[in-house]
Automatic annotation (TrEMBL):
Catalytic activity, reaction form: tRNA(Ala) + L-alanine + ATP = L-alanyl-tRNA(Ala) + AMP + diphosphate
UniProt xrefs under InterPro entries: aa-tRNA-synth_II/BPL/LPL, Ala-tRNA-lgiase_IIc, Ala-tRNA-ligase_IIc_anticod-bd, Ala-tRNA-synth_IIc_core, Ala-tRNA-synth_IIc_N, Ala-tRNA_ligase, Ala_tRNA_ligase_euk/bac, DHHA1_dom
Name listed for the protein in its UniProt record: Alanine--tRNA ligase
Gene this chain is encoded by: alaS
Cofactor: Zn(2+)
Subcellular location(s) per record: Cytoplasm
Organism: Facklamia lactis
Function per UniProt: Catalyzes the attachment of alanine to tRNA(Ala) in a two-step reaction: alanine is first activated by ATP to form Ala-AMP and then transferred to the acceptor end of tRNA(Ala). Also edits incorrectly charged Ser-tRNA(Ala) and Gly-tRNA(Ala) via its editing domain.
SUPFAM superfamilies the UniProt entry points to: Class II aaRS and biotin synthetases, Putative anticodon-binding domain of alanyl-tRNA synthetase (AlaRS), ThrRS/AlaRS common domain, Translation proteins
Length: 881
C-alpha cells in the first residue's frame, strides 16, 4: 500500500477515472439546486439525479468527481465515534447507460490493488453482494481472482430509496488487522459487513438496473446505471493507518491549530478528544457551507449551520476557549483544501466575517442562556423541586445553543438533576418535524424508456424569429409513442425546429399556438426539454388531429414574449444592483421570469432597508433610462470568464456559452431571451422584499405596462384616501395623518385615565369582598371589558393594601376571558402557589395558563364560565391546602 495524503488519494482517484475516459466534473454546491427534497447535497448521486432518472442525458455518460457532502441526521455522534462527520468528501464514478458490472468491478479492483494506484494487499480485501446477484459474485471471483471465502452474500446489499432507479450493490471491505478487532471471533457481527472495527467498508458499487414503480413493482431499467461512492476520510484512515478519521491529515492540521488556542492537548483524555474532534469537524462543514452561500439563521439550512457553529463554540468553552476563535481556523482549511475547492479561497474573508459575527452573537446569547438556566433553577428550588424537565433542557439547547452536558453540569453544581429521557424525546420530536417538512430525500423520477429513445437533430430558432414552419417528429401520449394526436386531446409533440422557448433558467415557456394557414389547430400549454435536449411541446388540440410527419406553422405569442423579455433583462440589472448595494455575497438563488412579473431570490443576511431598496430600484431605472444596448454573443467559456461574465446559480454550462452584456455593466452567462435595448423595459417597480428561508431573500417586481398599471392603481388608492380624509392637496396628506395620530394618542390617554379611575373605584368594592377558607382569606371577583394590563394594575393595588391572602380576578370581552391569580408570600410558604391554583380555574373558562408561585395568569375562550369559575375558588383552594 502506498503512503498517501488525503489530497493525493483524491487526485489519484480522479486521474484513474480520467484515464478511463470519464468526464471529471467539479463538486456541486452543498446547496441543492431545484430540489426541495434536500436541505443539503448529502451524497455524490444527489447532485446527479437528473442523469440517474433519465430526465437529462449527459454529453459524456461516464462521469467521476469528488463531491463535498453534508449530513446532520446524527450530529450527536460526531466526535464520539471513529467516522461520523457532518461534512465529508465522497469520491464517485458513474455510468449513465454505458458500462455496467463487468467493466466497473475489475476497474475498482485495479484501482485498489495496482501498484500504480493504491497498491492494497489483495488478501486484505473482502466484498459483499446481494444473494440473488450471482453475476456480481462471479465477476469478483473470475475476473478479479477473489477467493470464495472473501466474497460474502449479504441480504442488505440492495440500494432502494423509493420510486425510481434501484438495484443491487457490492461493498468492498479492508481488513485492518487484529489490532483493530473489537469483537470476539464468535460474535455474529465479526465478519466483513458486520458492525465491527476490523473490517472497514471502503467503497460501494451500486448497480441501478430496475425501476421501482409507484405500484411497488420492479421493472428493468431502459438504461442501466452505475453509481459508486468512496468516502475520502475513511480511505485516508485506512491508508494512513489511524485509529479514527480524525488522526488523518484531513483533520490534524485543524486540531493542531486548536491546540495553540488552549492549554489542553489532543490525546489527553476522551472528553477532551471529543471537543477537538467536534470543533475540527464542524469548522470544516460551516466553512464549506458559507462559501457556497448558506448563512446562519433560525430555520432550515441556516438553523443547522447556526447549530454547528454553536456546538463548536460550546466545545471550545470546554477546552477553556471563552472568546471568538472559529474564524481563525478558516485559513487552515483553505490551505489544506483550497487548491481543489477554489470557492474556499475566493470566499475566505466572507466566511471569516460571517463566522465572527455569529460568534459575537453567540457569546451574547450564551450569557442570556446562563441567566435563563439560573432563573429556572431558582424557581424550581422555590417550588422545592430538584429536576429540570426535559422540555426545559431542550428549550435551552434549541434557543441558546446549550448542549445537554452543560445544563447537566450547571444543574449538578446546584444539586439538581435533568430529565434526560424527556430531553431526548423533545429532540426526536424536532427531528420528526424536520423529516416531515420535506419529502423523501432520496426519491427520483421513474425512467421513461419512451423519452429516452427520442434523439434527433433539433433547432431552436426562437432567439431570432417567433414563427416558423416545423415538422412533427414524434408524438407521445401517456408515455407511449403514437402517430397521431387526436382532436380535443392532450399530448407531447416533438418538432424538428421550434421558436418556443422551453422552461429553464427561471424563464417560463412561451405561449402560442399551432396553425395551418390562418386556422389555429392547437394551443401550446407548456414546453420543456427532453432527456436529449429536444423541446417537448405540451399540446391541446381543438377540432382537428395533428399527425406525425406533417408540417405546421408554430407561432409564439409576441406580446407575451415581449413582456417576458422585459422581465428577464430586468433581473440581470437587478442582480447587478443588489451586488452594488449589498455586496458580492448577494448571489442569485433562484428566479421566476414570466410575462406577468419577475421574482428574484438572492442570498443576504437580513431584511433590506427602505434606503437600500430605493437605491436598487433607482439603479435599475437609471440603466433603463440610459438606453443601453443588450449585446448577446456566443464564445468559449474561458473567454467569457476573462471578460468578467457571471455564471448564474445552478446552471450548467458547456465549452461554448451565451453571454448577455448590458452596456458592460451587467455581464452574465444566460440562455434566455432578452430585449435588444434597456429602453424597451420602459420602467421597473419593486413590489415586495421578503425572506423565504435561511439567509435567502426574495424580491418581486414589475416592468413595462404592468409597472405602469401598478402605479395607476396606487394613484387611485391615494386619491380615495385623499377624499376620505377631505384633504385638498396630496402634499397635505402626511400632515393630516400626523394630526389624526396625535388626536388618537390623546384619546387613548384619556381612555386609559378613565379606565384607571374606574378600576380604582371598582377596587374599593372588590377589596371588601373578602371570604375565608380555613385560616386563609381570598377575594374572587370579576370586572367587565378590561384587559390584562388593567387586571395587573388591580393586582398591584391589592398587594399594596394586603387586602387578602389570595386574589382571583377575571374579566370577559366578547369571546375572550382573562384571569389573574395572586398569592402572598405567607400562603406560598404553606404550599399554595398561584401557578397550581390557576390550572384548574383556567380550565373552567376554556383555557390554560401558568406562572410563578406568587403570580399566574391565563386566557380562555369561554367568558360565560367566569361566574361558575369564581364560585369554585374556595373548593380549589381547599384542595391545595
Amino acid at each position: 500500500m502506498q503512503a498517501l495524503t488525503g489530497n493525493e488519494i483524491r487526485q489519484k482517484f480522479i486521474d484513474f477515472w480520467a484515464e478511463k475516459n470519464h468526464e471529471i466534473i467539479p463538486s456541486a454546491s452543498l446547496i441543492p439546486v431545484n430540489d426541495p427534497t434536500l436541505l443539503w447535497i448529502n451524497s455524490g448521486v444527489a447532485a446527479l439525479k437528473a442523469y440517474m432518472d433519465g430526465s437529462e442525458v449527459p454529453e459524456n455518460p461516464k462521469i467521476a468527481n469528488a463531491q463535498k457532502c453534508i449530513r446532520t441526521n446524527d450530529i450527536e455522534n460526531v466526535g464520539v465515534t471513529a467516522r461520523h462527520h457532518t461534512l465529508f468528501e465522497m469520491l464517485g464514478n458513474w455510468s449513465i447507460g454505458d458500462y455496467f458490472k463487468e467493466e466497473v468491478i475489475p476497474w475498482a479492483w485495479e484501482f485498489l490493488t495496482s501498484k500504480e494506484w493504491l497498491g492494497f494487499d489483495k488478501e486484505r480485501l473482502y466484498v459483499t453482494y446481494h444473494p440473488e446477484d450471482l453475476e456480481t459474485k462471479q465477476i469478483w471471483m473470475e475476473k478479479c481472482g477473489l477467493a470464495e471465502d472473501h466474497v460474502i452474500a449479504e441480504e442488505g446489499n440492495f440500494w432502494d430509496i423509493g420510486a425510481g432507479p434501484c438495484g443491487p450493490d457490492t461493498e468492498i471491505f479492508y481488513d485492518r488487522g487484529e489490532s483493530y478487532q473489537n469483537l470476539d471471533d464468535s460474535d455474529p457481527e465479526m465478519y466483513p459487513g458486520g458492525e465491527n472495527e476490523r473490517y472497514l467498508e471502503i467503497w460501494n458499487l451500486v448497480f441501478s438496473q430496475y425501476n421501482h414503480m409507484p405500484d411497488g413493482s420492479y421493472q428493468p431499467l431502459p438504461n442501466k446505471n452505475v453509481d459508486t461512492g468512496m468516502g475520502l476520510e475513511r480511505m485516508a484512515s485506512v491508508i494512513q493507518d489511524t485509529p479514527t478519521n480524525f488522526e488523518t491529515d484531513l483533520f490534524m492540521p485543524i486540531i493542531e491549530q486548536i491546540e495553540t488556542l488552549t492549554d489542553k492537548k489532543y490525546g489527553q483524555d476522551q472528553k477532551i478528544n471529543t471537543s477537538f474532534k467536534v470543533i475540527a469537524d464542524h469548522i470544516r462543514a460551516v466553512s464549506f457551507a458559507i462559501s457556497d452561500g448558506a448563512l446562519p439563521s433560525n430555520e432550515g439550512r441556516g438553523y443547522i449551520l447556526r447549530r454547528l457553529i454553536r456546538r463548536a463554540l460550546m466545545h471550545g468553552r470546554k477546552l477553556g476557549i471563552h472568546r471568538t476563535f472559529l474564524s481563525e481556523l478558516v485559513p487552515v482549511i483553505v490551505e489544506m483544501m483550497g487548491e481543489f475547492y477554489p470557492e474556499l479561497k475566493e470566499n475566505v474573508q466572507f466566511v471569516q466575517d460571517i463566522l465572527l459575527k455569529e460568534e459575537e452573537r453567540f457569546h451574547e446569547t450564551i450569557e442570556g442562556g446562563e441567566m435563563q438556566l439560573n432563573q429556572l433553577m431558582a424557581d424550581l428550588k422555590a417550588e422545592e423541586k430538584s429536576e429540570i424537565s426535559g422540555h426545559a433542557a431542550f428549550q435551552l439547547y434549541d434557543t441558546f445553543g446549550f448542549p445537554l452536558e452543560l445544563t447537566q453540569e450547571m444543574a449538578e453544581e446546584e444539586g439538581m438533576l435533568v430529565d434526560v429521557a424527556g430531553f431526548e424525546q423533545a429532540m426526536e420530536e424536532q427531528r420528526e418535524r424536520a423529516r416531515s417538512a420535506r419529502s423523501d430525500e432520496g426519491s427520483m423520477s421513474v425512467q421513461s424508456a419512451t423519452l429516452q429513445s427520442i434523439d434527433y437533430q433539433f433547432d431552436f430558432v426562437g432567439y431570432d424569429q417567433l414563427s416558423t414552419n416545423a415538422t412533427i417528429k414524434h408524438i407521445v401520449v401517456e408515455d407511449e409513442l403514437t402517430s397521431q394526436l387526436k382532436a380535443n386531446s392532450e399530448g407531447y409533440i416533438f418538432f424538428n425546429r421550434s421558436p418556443f422557448y422551453a422552461e429553464m433558467g427561471g424563464q417560463v415557456a412561451d405561449e402560442g399556438g399551432i396553425f395551418d394557414g390562418d386556422q389555429m389547430l392547437a394551443e401550446i400549454l407548456d414546453v420543456k426539454k427532453g432527456p436529449h435536449g429536444q423541446f417537448m411541446h405540451k399540446v391541446r388540440t381543438f377540432e382537428m388531429p395533428l399527425n406525425e410527419g406533417q408540417s405546421y406553422t408554430l407561432t409564439v405569442d409576441r406580446n407575451s414574449r415581449m413582456k417576458t423579455n422585459q422581465n428577464h433583462t430586468a433581473t440581470h440589472l437587478l442582480h447587478k444592483a443588489l451586488k452594488d448595494v449589498l455586496g458580492d455575497h448577494a448571489n442569485q438563488a433562484g428566479s421566476y421570469v414570466g410575462p406577468d412579473r419577475l421574482r428574484f431570490d438572492f442570498s443576504h443576511f437580513g431584511k433590506m432597508g427602505h434606503e437600500e431598496l430605493k437605491q436598487v430600484e433607482t439603479y435599475v431605472n437609471y440603466m433603463i433610462e440610459n438606453t443601453l444596448d443588450v449585446e448577446i454573443q456566443e464564445m468559449p467559456i474561458d473567454q467569457a470568464k476573462a471578460m468578467g461574465a457571471m455564471a448564474l446559480f445552478g446552471e450548467k454550462y458547456g465549452d461554448v456559452v451565451r453571454v448577455v452584456n448590458i452596456g458592460n455593466e451587467s455581464i452574465e452567462l444566460c440562455g434566455g431571451t432578452h430585449v435588444t435595448n434597456t429602453n424597451e423595459i420602459a420602467t421597473f417597480k419593486l413590489i415586495s422584499e421578503t425572506g423565504i428561508g435561511a439567509g435567502i431573500r426574495r424580491i418581486e417586481a414589475l416592468t413595462g405596462q404592468a409597472a405602469i398599471a401598478d402605479y395607476q392603481e396606487n394613484e387611485s388608492i391615494l386619491h380615495t384616501i385623499q377624499q376620505q380624509l377631505k384633504v385638498a392637496q396630496k402634499d397635505q396628506l402626511l400632515h393630516k395623518i400626523e394630526q389624526l395620530q396625535a388626536e388618537l394618542k390623546e384619546s387613548h390617554s384619556e381612555i386609559d385615565s378613565l379606565t384607571a379611575k374606574i378600576m380604582q373605584n371598582a377596587s374599593g368594592e372588590i377589596f371588601e369582598q373578602v371570604q375565608e377558607v380555613g385560616d386563609l382569606t381570598y377575594i374572587a371577583a370579576s370586572v367587565e371589558n378590561q384587559n390584562m394590563d388593567s387586571l395587573r394594575s388591580l393586582g398591584d393595588t391589592w398587594q399594596e393594601k394586603a387586602a387578602s391572602n389570595i386574589l382571583v380576578i377575571a374579566t370577559g370581552q366578547e369571546d375572550k376571558a382573562n384571569l389573574l391569580v395572586l398569592v402572598d408570600d405567607a400562603t406560598v410558604a404553606k404550599g399554595i402557589k398561584a401557578g397550581d391554583l390557576i390550572k384548574s380555574l383556567a380550565a373552567m373558562i376554556g383555557g390554560g395558563g401558568g406562572g410563578r408561585p406568587q403570580m399566574a395568569q391565563a386566557g380562555g375562550k369561554n367568558p360565560a364560565g367566569i361566574p361558575q369559575m369564581l364560585a369554585a375558588v374556595a373548593e380549589e383552594i381547599e384542595k391545595l391546602a
